[in-house]
Amino acid sequence: MTLQTRPGHSNRPDPAAHIKLVVSDIDGTLLTPQKQVTHHTLNAITALRHAGVPVCLVSSRPASGIEMYLEALKLDTPYGALNGGSIFNPDRSLRSQLTLPTDIVQEALGLLQEHNIDAWLFRGHEWVITNAASPYVEPESRAIKQTPNIVPSFKTMLAGVGKITASSSNYDAITQQEAEIGALLKGRACVAQSAPFYLDITPPNANKGYALHQLADFYGIAPHEVACLGDMNNDLPMFKAAGMAIAMGQATQTVKDQAHFVTAANTAEGWSKAVTEYILPRAAKAD
């Protein structure tokens, strides 16, 4: 696939000329569909390191699902979990955390139950479920290397929730609930798909744009000096915040429309190609 620029949007500045930080989504972006990191990606991260440009990860995954890749990627940088609501220092200590009010948790769970959609709660490092037979529990457990806490009811688990994830094999239902729950909780929660089969509900400021600002602040640089890469709707807040937004080739059309550039898919070395084509030339110009 040929790398390409997006159609110009008059309401958005051109991509930044100087890049000092890269913030990347993980699933569908940094990883292949088999959840692997390719040699080309590792080489691209090394090239960025040599250029003095740190790479930070931001994901809807819990912290454990991010930390499992840090050593392999040789990253000693801060990162954002639960769609950016929880920010961790390089030593893996918690830097900041946003949680949902209990009434919002109750309301969201009730809405999902009405539509027979499974819900999961993420509280700190804990993953809580009520339905172990849900088709996405086992693959998610493998993906993040974490075993969920199975409870008969969420009634005593409503406090300290950083993220609610709705999961369903009915992709249309997930898309529909993104619109419906998003409208009902507008201004009170952030509602966005992190995969065709996942819908994430987080505190209103707990999004990847918030995370990008926090990570840029850690390094003392401006958000417009940050390049970001992603593929799903939950990446849009960081696309809006960053000085350069790059969409993966298999990204949703909405995401592509909001990107400065579209790279190849994550099946075709899209991440490393984007770094080589767009980021490194601008990194060389950074102070």
UniProtKB/TrEMBL annotation:
GO cellular component terms, A-Z: cytosol
Q: One GO molecular-function annotation for this sequence?
A: magnesium ion binding
User: Which one Pfam family would you cite for this protein?
Assistant: Hydrolase_3
Q: Does the keyword Disulfide bond apply?
A: no
Instruction: Alphabetically list the UniProt keywords.
Output: Hydrolase
Q: Does the keyword Hydrolase apply?
A: yes
Matching entries from InterPro entries are given as: Cof, HAD-like_sf, HAD-SF_hydro_IIB, HAD_sf
Its name, as the record gives it, is: Hydrolase
| Species this chain originates from | Acetobacter orientalis
